[in-house]
Here is the input.
Amino acid sequence: MIQDIFPSRLINSWQPASPAPESICMCFQDGRLLAAVKDGELHFPRYQSSSGKAVYLFSVDDEAFFLTEPEHVPDGFQYYSMRELRDQCAGKYLYAAFTAYHLHLWYDDNRYCGICRGEMQHDAGERALVCTGCGHKIYPRINPAVIVGVINRGRLLITRYRRGYAHNALVAGFTEIGETLEETVAREVMEETGVRVRNIRYYKSQPWGMAQDILMGFFCEADGGDTIRMDDNELKSACWCKPDEIELQPQQHSLTNEMMKLFRDTNGHLPAAVFRMQNSAQPQKTRIYFTRHGETTMNVADHISGVTDCALTENGIRQAEALAAVCAGHPEISLIVCSPLMRARRTAEIVAAQIHVPVVTDERLREWDYGSYEDQPRDATPDFQAAKREFGVRMKDGGESLLQLAHRVYSCIDDIRQQYAGMTVLCVCHGGVCRIAETYFKDMSTEAFSNFFMGNCELRQYEL
Here is the structure.
């Protein structure tokens, strides 16, 4: 989907930042964005002193984005509609463009106070607008909306809009005042197609700046008959499609397309782990699986790799794929929590793509910080193993002690138990973290602790 920009990350928290020469300018005119498109790659102008007033929007990795109004159009740039950019581009800059467009619309729609008609100005401490007259404060507008995959006897209800987007879609609509999301699902399906639904299950959400939305995807089942009574004002077509009859959208940006693809690729048999049944009873026990990432380049070189990032080898990718096949035999797994380090995240992504569950990262699952031992050959550092057995002594030159590692890993497991009670969670992390996790669930002697080893993509289950 459009927000899937790993390993890049959108940092959307507001900060009182000023533009630098390398800062990216997001310039809008009549709803169109100033950009350059070259071979499908999206480019934006950089800040200049002549760019005028700049408003900080967000950052992507280390690049800061500002809303500005340039005095002229730089060579090679022109104004594009958001639909034109959506059709031609992909990646982190397209996601940035949609998010900037969302904020641009909000700023543009709220130049004056709705209470006293005073001029609105940017708040100095948060992303908000404050009236210079009466002090009224407002925050960015986000419209909740639903995307609905209606299933009946192995078929999915596919629609096409009367106006606007021309490709296949699902039933969709905005949440009304005083309405729950589940009520929105039932109402929109009934209004657009005349089909009653039951067994409404949440799947996934997506920010969608083009319409200032937060989209929430649901699957449900037709309740009773499958006769379609289409709303001709909203839709051009609506029909039941078998998995092999589904034609996907040309781009991979939307939650709608992902839901259609999931139904198609699973031949209409959505895995139970994709979502939790609405109002269903929780399982009595919480289960946590731990696994270590696949083989890495530093594993092969026999170098010490704590917080030093490194990539999976081809063998490591195959190990992750084999792990995914094993996890597919555990449909109770409904969430993956992983270390933010690249080798663990890549392993988690491979598994998630197979079993169709969400992935969240937790900084506390990163590997032990080995200080100056990092990236050293194991056979050239004979004191490393001895240092690992010193529970309360930090690794040389700024590393962590074993007790510090245990503290953060224990706190992570405590939070998983509390936040995901009754669920089965897969933790994708590292050998040192897995060793600590073993002590959380089992009593271990010092000798057993020292001898503990977790193989690449080995899977261990713990029940609470």
